[in-house]
Amino acid sequence: xxxxxxxxxxxxxxxxxxxxxxxxxxxxxxxxxxxxxxxxxxxxxxxxxxxxxxxxxxxxxxxxxxxxxxxxxxxxxxxxxxxxxxxxxxxxxxxxxxxxxxxxxxxxxxxxxxxxxxxxxxxxxxxxxxxxxxxxxxxxxxxxxxxxxxxxxxxxxxxxxxxxxxxxxxxxxxxxxxxxxxxxxxxxxxxxxxxxxxxxxxxxxxxxxxxxxxxxxxxxxxxxxxxxxxxxxxxxxxxxxxxxxxxxxxxxxxxxxxxxxxxxxxxxxxxxxxxxxxxxxxxxxxxxxxxxxxxxxxxxxxxxxxxxxxxxxxxxxxxxxxxxxxxxxxxxxxxxxxxxxxxxxxxxxxxxxxxxxxxxxxxxxxxxxxxxxxxxxxxxxxx
Length: 383
Prior knowledge:
By secondary structure, this protein is of the alpha+beta class. The chain has helices at 6-22, 28-43, 52-75, 77-82, 88-113, 139-144, 163-169, 208-211, 227-245, 268-279, 299-304, 335-355, 363-375; strands at residues 135-137, 155-160, 180-186, 192-198, 202-207, 216-224, 291-292, 310-311, 323-330.
């Protein structure tokens, strides 16, 4: 019995998706239908139906085809917005397609590297490093050389290994693969910084290399079309957070409420929103397509302090037509692990909704939580 030439059929599937993605549309219903077709075609792909050895040989090219497909779809967002086609169904369709194509690309990376695990080497790679096609670069930026350097105002979207990262990524009505976001600032001396808001520290400034070395599995680099606006945004937020850490300054704590209207405290996405709002003199407010937090069982949300039904989630930046996707990185040794976290968290939230499940807090957990929040007021030395 002859084995199927399945690597060719996998390529055919990608080609079919590419054709659908490139098909001109004139109404939102057709666009939503095309996106749904792409999502279903990609989500139903089973690698055991294909010639995995053949796929492994072609994996780098296939990964770039999927990446270029996502970049191409993102590049059409502004056009669809101009035509008034970005209905809630279309927006959801884009999010679903971006997510599933990223998963398929992850699996290609895992196949071509032989499915290694981080416990075999003991450490995660630093973001945007690695020799196994870990970093995929938008050709427009690769061609110009602009992808080789960070710029002030660049926005970095990441996903960590912690289980709470999976909860953050799945907390809204839209499943996402990211849990944190920050702004790059390059000072006059050329030093690179990440301005971000962390649960344990609040708003803080970290050397960029250290931030990219902080147990992350995914990282995506976005760049605003207006370089001057981006530079102003980065300078403003760097100075604002630096002043809060100076002598006599008031620390900016992490905001668990997820509200975007109060800037006394900041969660990670709200810090990015504040930076670009101030950098644009109030004319540019993120996000264009906010995440809804509409769960019937609000017990978990109330416990963590969420006080809104509409927020700026980290992954919402992926739908911003004013930002280009410059490069995307992943450590294939742990992408399967966070994929399992994602699916596990999906079921936990589903059971909370379906069976009214609730978390039980012991006295010890409450004490740790109280001390953790209290310590956020301390200096780094005191911590």
